[in-house]
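Handout, section 4.2: multi-component inputs.
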Amino acid sequence: MSWGSASEFFAMGGYGFYVWGSFIVTAICLAVEPALLALRRKNALEKIRLEKATNETAA
Amino acid sequence: MNGVIHWFRYASPQSFYPLAGRVAPWFGALAAVSGAAGLWIAFFVAPTDAQQGEAYRIIFIHVPASWMSMFLYVVMAGWAGIGLALNTRLSAMMAHAIAPTGAMFAFLSLWTGALWGRPTWGTYWVWDARLTSELVLFFLYLGYMALNAAIDDPRRADRAAAVLALVGVVNVPIIYFSVQWWNTLHQGASVSLTRSPTMAATMLAGMLVMAFAFWMYAIAVVLVRVRAIMLEREAHTDWARELREAAA
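Output:
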């Protein structure tokens, strides 16, 4: 391990902006995509439920 | 029919849907575990680079993201081609499910590349062969999704998008060989199949573990997305309406 302290770790030898800018944006993307997918699935199921309910009242 | 494997059994949405649902969480778990291990190696095991200092640590996401962006495109074009040739519903859905994840990895490749280029080359962007062809890949993904969304009839959209995906596959070898064919600012491959890697063993290990994590993540997300696409497209079919999760 090459870090003397936490602040040294976050500074990344002066390249903190570039290193953390890369890792944080990647982390955000990998978190947002599954969240959007969960929403998409929820909406699709909701639509099926709604259609089923409408068909039953019509029949 | 004893001993005969029913290869086409999982080619229909109603049988693939539950299978994908069962395996997706396992791929997600593998992605989380290997991602944590990869980050540990990337920040706490891999040594500081002699030339680039700590800036080189971007490699642990830049290279795996770039690999995934190219690999996913080939898989997407493969599914699109199968869909075009055999006219199977599931193939086109698989291709559609891959596109947004591939686009995301292409974006991450460009984004991390820009943030790595600034401290090492002195610029966020150059119109260099490697960078430009990766940007073209990103636009091919976006074009595929836009074309698919622009055509109302889903089956026609499948075929049009498949043709675009297949034509665009030419770009993948161009990206890969761009650093050899043209004189570029981008460095050559650090890892190749034909010679030993030109980097420290721990750096290589970190990169491969991260690549594995991205791979598992991509499989999990694509399976979840293809399930959502099945629900959207097959909403009027009996199997979708009889799903337990669609019960009121």
